[in-house]
Design goal:
Layout: E1 2-5, E2 8-11, E3 17-23, H1 38-50, E4 55-59, H2 72-89, E5 93-97, H3 101-110, E6 114-117, H4 126-133, E7 136-140, H5 158-175, E8 183-186, H6 195-203, E9 216-218, H7 223-229, H8 237-249, E10 254-257, H9 260-275, H10 278-290
Parallel strand pairs: 3-4, 3-10, 4-5, 5-6, 6-7, 7-8, 9-10
Antiparallel strand pairs: 1-2
Helix pairs in contact: 1-2, 2-3, 3-4, 8-9
The protein binds 6-hydroxymethylpterin-diphosphate.
């Protein structure tokens, strides 16, 4: 399975990608205010690249529960200098975490390769931008908006409904001219989901594999881990690694995380275990013979 992001192509049958998070916001739930200053943001991005990040996901708008949208000009004031420097001075592939096509267009112009859209193309000018630029796009599921999503999220069967919703958004992207190989899908852990919905999604992640597109999972330090562990955001690492390993075992290809080095190590072991299952071993020997 290939994921095409502009002039870069990721081959994802065997590899798990680590997407390091760089939040240039005053209010993100676990690292708000730490990387607002461009020098500290750039140093943090560099250290994530050294730890093995394949992509750096840069965002200027927190989407924590209760947050409000950040105007385009303010997003760009925070992002512009950082993206321009990173595009020229690091080998990392840059992803822009925004729902605004205007911000995404400026970021792609500055050298980003991926748009991470937590609203899955809700801005009507986003799909044409992705189609025309050839950038990679992450389509994420959210029930409601960040302002109201955690009030009382309800599903009859969260994994089934979210799988159907993601397949429909993929179809919408395709009809808007986006090539399927540009798209990655994300169930949106914590976005309009109660603890049990997040657990069902992670326990049954393999049910989301049907469209044969790369699956992104972002669970780093999130609230459901805090609820299970009764611990604050800075003490949820081991819980997050356990859940990430299970996600990889079931087919996740991209892990979005604040903790790059440890997530990479967990992903390598989980992917090796996944590939040791008889059906995967058979698939791999078939594709080796064909290739
Ligand atoms: N989670 C967050 C933000 N963007 N994008 C994708 N594709 N998947 C996710 O799960 C996801 C995301 C929220 O996490 P974080 O960036 O740490 O916090 P905040 O939104 O407060 O900046």
């Amino acid at each position: 399975m290939e994921w095409r992001c502009g002039d870069r192509v990721f081959e994802l049958d065997d590899r798990v990608l680590v997407m390091g998070i760089l939040n240039v916001t005053p209010d993100s739930f676990s690292d708000g205010g730490r990387f607002l200053d461009p020098a500290s943001a750039i140093a943090h991005a560099r250290s994530m690249v050294e730890e093995g990040a394949d992509l750096i996901d840069v965002g200027a708008e927190s989407t924590r529960p209760g947050s409000a949208p950040v105007p385009v000009d303010e997003q760009w004031r925070r992002l512009g200098p950082i993206l321009q420097t990173l595009a020229h001075q690091t080998p990392a592939i840059l992803s822009i975490d925004t729902a605004s096509a205007e911000v995404a267009a400026r970021a792609l112009e500055a050298g980003a390769h991926v748009v991470n859209d937590v609203t899955a193309l809700s801005d009507p000018t986003m799909a044409p931008l992705i189609a025309q630029s050839g950038a990679g796009i992450v389509l994420m599921h959210m029930q409601g908006t960040p302002a109201d999503m955690q009030r009382d999220p309800r599903y009859e069967d969260a994994p089934r409904e979210i799988a159907e919703w993601l397949a429909a958004r993929l179809e919408h992207a395709r009809r808007s001219g986006v090539s399927e190989d540009q798209v990655a899908l994300d169930p949106g852990i914590g976005f309009g989901k109660a603890v049990e919905h997040n657990l069902q999604l992670l326990a049954r992640l393999d049910e989301l594999r049907a469209p044969r597109r790369p699956l992104v999972v972002g669970l780093s330090r999130k609230g459901f881990l805090g609820r299970l562990l009764d611990l604050p955001a800075d003490q949820r690492l081991e819980g997050g690694l356990a859940a990430s390993a299970i996600a990889v075992f079931q087919g996740a290809s991209i892990l979005r995380t604040h903790d790059v080095a440890s997530t990479r190590r967990a992903a390598i072991v989980a992917a090796a275990l996944r590939d040791a299952r008889p059906e995967r071993a058979r698939q791999r020997s078939r594709s080796t013979k064909i290739g």
